[in-house]
Amino acid sequence: MKNLRYVILLLAATSIFAINAQAQVIVIANPGVKANEISKNDLRDVFTGNATSLPDGSRVVPILLKSGTVHEEFLQVYIGKNDTAYRAGWRSLVFSGQASMPKSLDPETVVVEFVAHNAGAIGYISKSTPHEGVKVLTVR
Amino acid sequence: MKRFLVGALALALGAISATAQSLEDLNIQIHGYATQGFLYTTQNNIFTAKSSDGSPAWTEAVVNLTSQPNPKLRVGVQARYFMLGNFGNAITLDWASADYKANDKFGVRFGKVKTPSTLFNETQDIDPSYIWSLLPQGIYQIGSRNSNLSHYGGVVYGVVKLGSNLGKLEYRGWGGERVIGSDDGYWVNQKEAGLNMQNGISGVTYGATLHWKTPLSGLTVGGSNLKDNQWVAPLTSAIPTYGTFPGTETLNAFNSPSVHARYEKNKVMVVGEYARLPVTGAIKVPGVYTKPIRLDQRSWYVMASYKLTGKLTAGVYDTQIIDRQMALGPARYSKDWVISGRYDFNQFLYAKAEEHIIDGTMIGYDTAMNPGTLKPSTKLTILKIGVSF
Questions:
Q1: Domains of chain A: total
Q2: Angstrom distances, CA of residue B361 to CA of A88, A103, B335, B373
Q3: Structural domains in chain B?
Q4: pLDDT tens-digit readout, B328-339
Q5: pTM, rounded to two decimals
Q6: Hey, are the CB atoms on A97 and B103 less than 8 Å from each other?
Q7: What ipTM does the predicted assembly reach?
Q8: Distance CA B365, CA B85 (A)
Q9: Domain at A35, CATH number
């Protein structure tokens, strides 16, 4: 019984951390992007190369993090793939002449700087990373 | 046609050079991959390799160079070295194209471009993208891959939203000239019988593919039709003790339809596809003989894969092809049951292992590497290592 209590507590703690982890990733965009929110489907389409614009017509360019927990979390929550599978999908497009590989940057402050100064740029960072000069898109 | 396209591509590259202020503006990217495979068959020799003894004669390397000087225009070129048994062993141009994407609903690319027929045609050569070492050979024959992958001409493409809760429709249309080179896998047995097309065969090709991304997340269904007009090419026929005679090979116009369905979500992927290739024609050697060509190849497969861990993926597929014009016997069909695994060491390096249980001798075997009678079934083991960047 004691062991069962520990297991339940551990599961609860893991769930809390998981929820908090998801809440830590925010989607940022260049201020010139008209939209203030983006659907999960549209976000996935942009970051998998299936779309280059949002429903409002804004042309967008995805910017990736090179690696790290924020990157892995973004892929898991919004793309449904790990980094290897995700990059394999992009390689299909690159090696068949359908797309160019999106830029991958590090650390997050460089992502913020790039998104702030490049029209249409859209990326993702930790909520705790300073992000002046960009707008935060609500994912619905 | 080829000269016109190369000239147009050169103009596009010149325009880019004239307007770009720096290399940064050109957004130049270089990517590539290389693979080394090993084949072993329990019986027969497959893909013109001495696989019954174990053969490492399977090497590929690709270099890809692209530039995107502005958000709507991308130009690029890709070269490949391919060697499988006696196939290839040369550097060829995979594709070289300019791509203008006005918006998500309409884009066009021209040059030597990948042909977007069937489900996997334009990506069948991209080994880093798949768990499989070999795609189902009934539809994606590796010996003819170079010829089927691309054509000289153009592709139009786009995605159209169908309205609320109806999903999206992705369309691809293509047209131009396709070339089946003289060293293509289609001609291996023909060549070994003394028929030689020095310059291969080529002609007009066009078609369309539709993918419906259904409202059910992860499910795509679609179909494709490829149409080739009549193609004619000169050849020579070497008849022992009589000499060599000139002739022609004619392939009559045909349609090649296919349908597919794909479900991919999180760790699971399930795919099914059916394709038909009906071809008629004739080899004519005036004053000597006329040999009719009649094929009606019908092929299907079902495949499934599952991501066991972040680095390990396993999969299985079952595939069959039958030529309804051929006489009864093992040469009329090929059935292949496959189990496969892929391990990703990191985002650059991976390894694959695959076991095929093959029944039937319709595809993959040539007479020079298999003197005497082919055994009706074999097991094929493939090991492969690859790196991509």
A1: 1
A2: 33, 47, 9, 11
A3: 2-388 (2.40.160.10)
A4: 999 999 999 999
A5: 0.88
A6: no
A7: 0.85
A8: 11
A9: 3.40.190.10
